[in-house]
């Protein structure tokens, strides 16, 4: 891992930098002649350099010209909060002074990053710290992408070594789908991050028109639906914006996505004591998976200061999972990483631990 001084020296942008983001164009539209484009793409995405001057096989004059017109970094200041479990939460300050967060999670066999698609989030889920911040703005495609590149730089690894991306940080990706898809296409592009689309997960609170569009665009990513309650009444209590769409309407869109793409869908379910952890709700949840190949991820609630909820007991989580298993639904309990530094699911809120 790089030292903060070295890291910040390579994120040299001042607030309000008006140079064009070099992460915006597709690799084939990068500046320069044919093979120069490939060289630049390789430096950016395989080596993960943060300054044009480090692109040492480019002529000096070209490097200076690039640095005059283009910027690499989308962040002008970054802080990192390492967790005892090996994860690191990154707090990024964007060019306009707003902030967003990402979480890097190394596992034995893979490196994963959870990135944001917005500053804050308009969904306002009562169990999520981000939801209490309200909506700031959508992130641009370069800002979405650079969360991965900057984290790789800080970790001292190639961006291509991060093979799993989950869009489960701040924001609702399907309400910023144009920028999200642009960033995803760059992750998949052979001359950029060359990632398998199956290792990219988009998590949505349930925006039917976004799900239909995702099915049409068919970029090959995985869809995770943050359902969190199987009945409309409970769901509207914990996801205030859920009154816009009934669960049936959302599930129709998800079934369409499944029929069209044949990809397994994940249902995310944060367990809140006495709110959505009743066994009748587990049975109802099981019914929603009809007509789908679905996997249910049960997420024990990750507390944050002032949260109006408590997590379910381990025993209740076990019972809830058993009901789903008895109905033949694959289920896993996902204990989040980075709880100690406010990096776990639902804890991102630009607060320092
Ligand atoms: S859980 Fe997701 S959709 Fe809900 S407020 Fe948090 S970031 Fe937004």
Essential attributes:
353 residues; 10-stranded mixed β-sheet; 10 helices; 32% helix; globular
What does this 3D model show about the protein?
The protein is globular, with a radius of gyration of 21 Å. Helix content is 32%, strand content 20%. It is built from ten helices and 14 strands. The chain folds into two domains: 4-71, Orthogonal Bundle (DNA polymerase, domain 1); 76-341, TIM Barrel (Alpha-Beta Barrel), CATH 3.20.20.70. The strands form three sheets. Strands 3-4-5-6-9-10-11-12-13-14 form a ten-stranded mixed beta sheet, covered by helices on one side. The mean pLDDT is 91. With 353 residues, the protein is of the alpha/beta class. Iron/sulfur cluster binds at residues 121, 123-125, 128, 130-131, 170-172, 205, 346. The active site is at 101 (proton acceptor), 345 (s-methylcysteine intermediate).
Short description:
The protein is α/β, with parallel strands linked by helices. The protein has helices at 4-9, 34-47, 60-69, 141-155, 177-188, 208-217, 232-238, 247-261, 279-288, 314-326, and strands at 20-21, 70-71, 75-82, 88-94, 99-106, 111-114, 118-120, 135-138, 164-167, 200-204, 222-226, 265-271, 294-300, 331-333.
């Amino acid at each position: 891992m790089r030292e903060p001084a070295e890291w910040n020296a390579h994120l040299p942008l001042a607030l309000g930098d008006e140079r064009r983001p070099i992460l915006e164009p597709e690799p084939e539209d990068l500046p320069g002649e044919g093979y120069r484009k490939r060289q630049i793409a390789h430096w950016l995405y395989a080596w993960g350099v943060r300054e044009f001057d480090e692109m040492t096989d480019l002529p000096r004059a070209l490097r200076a010209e690039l640095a005059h017109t283009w910027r690499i970094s989308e962040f002008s200041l970054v802080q990192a909060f390492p967790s005892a479990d090996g994860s690191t939460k990154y707090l990024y300050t964007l060019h306009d002074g707003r902030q967003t967060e990402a979480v890097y999670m190394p596992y034995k066999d893979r490196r994963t990053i959870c990135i944001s698609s917005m500053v804050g989030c308009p969904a306002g889920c009562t169990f999520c710290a981000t939801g209490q911040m309200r909506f700031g703005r959508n992130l641009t495609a370069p800002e979405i992408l650079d969360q991965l590149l900057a984290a790789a730089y800080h970790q001292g690894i190639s961006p291509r070594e991060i093979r799993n991306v989950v869009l489960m940080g701040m924001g609702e990706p399907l309400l910023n789908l144009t920028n999200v898809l642009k960033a995803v296409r760059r992750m998949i592009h052979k001359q950029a991050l060359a990632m398998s689309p199956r290792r990219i997960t988009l998590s949505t609170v349930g925006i039917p028109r976004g799900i239909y569009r995702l099915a049409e665009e068919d970029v090959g990513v995985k869809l995770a639906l943050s359902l969190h309650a199987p009945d409309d009444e409970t769901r509207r209590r914990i996801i205030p914006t859920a009154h816009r769409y009934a669960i049936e309407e959302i599930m129709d869109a998800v079934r369409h996505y499944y029929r069209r793409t044949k990809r397994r869908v994940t249902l995310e379910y944060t367990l809140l004591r006495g709110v959505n952890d009743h066994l009748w709700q587990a049975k109802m949840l099981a019914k929603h998976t009809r007509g789908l190949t679905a996997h249910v991820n049960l997420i024990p609630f990750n507390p944050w200061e002032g949260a109006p909820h408590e997590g379910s007991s381990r025993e209740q989580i076990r019972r809830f999972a058993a009901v789903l298993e008895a109905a033949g639904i694959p289920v896993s309990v996902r204990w989040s990483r980075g709880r100690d530094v406010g990096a776990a699911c639902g804890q991102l809120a630009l607060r320092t631990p």
